[in-house]
């Protein structure tokens, strides 16, 4: 395992900072997006008006959105039912299972897909393993579900190693 396996291709403050025009310029036609603390706050399953507007922008631009979450089916289904997007539950990130299912379901090629998530340990690592580009976003809320807290602890060590190798990592307002 190399520290490079955790280095995101892009870093933006929030998923809403990804603009359809920029994605298309990069040849991206499909956004795989983590659910908790990326698309919606883990403790607010109904999401926000910003999420709705972002999904509408992607849909208008003919950019597919598929939620790829480690959560169980019922949790993800309830959350995405409000947005009308497809999903893969029990994705098993950092493994590639969920990403591969989404890509095969739609016939996406790796060069037209991007994975967006708030965790280096799961989302970004899975992206590298699947051979697709990645976007790290800041978590929507600073509290985490119990199982994420352990990953955050390990993530701080990885973050320090990344910055030692590449310099300060900063979030942008777009890609």
Automatic annotation (TrEMBL):
Keywords: Hydrolase. One of its GO terms (molecular function) is phosphatidylglycerophosphatase activity. SUPFAM superfamilies: HAD-like. Pfam families: Hydrolase_like. Gene3D superfamilies: HAD superfamily/HAD-like. InterPro entries: HAD-like_sf (IPR036412), HAD-SF_hydro_IIIA (IPR006549), HAD_sf (IPR023214), PGPP1/Gep4 (IPR010021), S-2-haloacid_dehalogenase (IPR051540). It comes from the Bacteria. PANTHER family: HYDROLASE, HALOACID DELAHOGENASE-RELATED. This is HAD superfamily hydrolase. It comes from Streptococcus hyointestinalis.
């Amino acid at each position: 395992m190399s520290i490079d396996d955790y280095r995101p291709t892009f870093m933006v403050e929030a998923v809403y900072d990804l603009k359809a025009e920029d994605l298309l310029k990069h040849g991206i036609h499909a956004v795989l997006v983590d659910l908790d603390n990326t698309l919606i706050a883990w403790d607010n399953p109904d999401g926000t008006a910003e999420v709705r507007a972002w999904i509408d922008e992607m849909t208008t631009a003919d950019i597919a959105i598929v939620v790829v979450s480690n959560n169980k089916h019922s949790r993800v289904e309830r959350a995405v039912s409000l947005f009308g997007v497809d999903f893969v539950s029990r994705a098993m990130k950092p493994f590639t299972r969920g990403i591969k299912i989404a890509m095969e379901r739609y016939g996406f090629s790796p060069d037209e897909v991007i994975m967006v998530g708030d965790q280096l340990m799961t989302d970004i690592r899975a992206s590298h393993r699947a051979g697709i580009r990645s976007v790290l976003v800041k978590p929507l809320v600073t509290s985490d579900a119990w199982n994420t807290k352990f990953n955050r602890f390990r993530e701080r060590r990885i973050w320090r190693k990344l910055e030692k190798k590449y310099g300060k990592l900063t979030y942008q307002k777009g890609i």
